[in-house]
Amino acid sequence: MTTDASATAARRPGEQALTALGLGAPALDPADTSTHSFPGGSRWRTEVPSCEGPEALAVILKEASRLDVPIHRISQGSGVWMLTDAEITEMVEATGERDIELCLFTGPRGTWDIGGSTRTDSRGGGLRARGHDAVAGCVEDAVRATELGVKCLLVADEGVLWTLHRARAAGVIPADTTLKVSALIGPVNPASYAVYERLGADSVNVPSDLTLDHLTEIRRVSGAPMDMYIEAPDDLGGYIRMYEVAELIRRGAPLYLKFGLSKAPGIYPYGHHMRDLTLSTARERVRRGRLALDLLARHGADGDMAPLGSRLPGELNRFDIQS
Asked: What are φ and ψ of residue 321, in 5° steps?
């Protein structure tokens, strides 16, 4: 799961013009280049988040075809419990036809619980599963979703992550189920990132305000795939980092480029009362993806994309599971 650290750097934004004006930037340090990759040596994949049901999925797939945006993974944020069996089945079939990984969120989570700590200034407890019953609800979601054909589960609690990792090792859910850590609890240092990998994470969503040096630090201790919003929703900061995409890949590979959307209201938990907003923002997320891919192409950094249909993370480090 490694690659040559001396890989040629892409052209940086404005590089030629600034150099001609005597304002060129220092040369990139090859030591900052991630030595990790997806299986087969590819460096990046794509993800469209916040796909809240079959209708939004149809919009995303249509717009992706129109704009020629390759998609490796489509994820949902409201939760398995917000979808009927028929809706999940429809989404599984539609993504299966395109060989796209579908990722659904497990729940319940702390911010929707009756506990008041998440509504205090400290935001205590956060997204985590409060008590045994909340963990049980997440496991129920996981079992139900995988029985309907879902192969990727989004998790926002360390205990739930470890429990589901043990569940797939025991055959309770399929062994090839992938577990994705939510941006809402994403680690912000290399030590915690490595812990998530060992707890069973197959990809880890880091906050979009991490610096390039932070990514390099993480890659020195872990090769687990990283997810990052190239454009983050407002409730995650609203950061827009499109001009850094090539450098994010160089430092953070293997990396999922997540095409989020700022200046848009939150839509979780989704219902039909939010239909128009959800469909319009779904369409725009794909367009944002096209913009990011165009930037990569202009800078000569659009190579090393993973083959469409690839989804497994490669060999990762795990804590021992005691019987």
From this structure: -95, 115
Q: How far is CA 182 from the centre of its chain?
A: 7
Determine the Cα–Cα distance for residues 200 and 178; give it in Å rounded to an integer.
9
Task: Give me the helix-helix angle, 54-67 and 85-98, nearest 10°.
Answer: 20
C-beta separation of 196 from 181 below 8 A:
yes
Q: Band the pLDDT of 164: cuts 50, 70, 90.
A: very high
Q: Which amino acid is at 232?
A: A
Is residue 51 within 8 A of residue 150, CB to CB? The reply is: no
What does the pLDDT look like over 229-256, one tens digit per residue? 999 888 888 889 999 999 999 999 999 9
> DSSP secondary structure string, 46-111?
EEE----SHHHHHHHHHHHHHHT---SEEE-SS-GGGS-HHHHHHHHHHHHHHT-EEEEE----GG
For residues 44 and 102, give the distance between their C-alpha atoms in angstroms, rounded to a whole number: 17
Indicate whether this model's pTM tops 0.85: yes
Q: Output the CA torsion sign for 109, 113, 117, 120.
A: positive
Identity of the residue numbered 8: T
Whole-Å CA distances, 113 to 1, 126, 163, 183: 40, 10, 20, 19
Length of the chain: 323
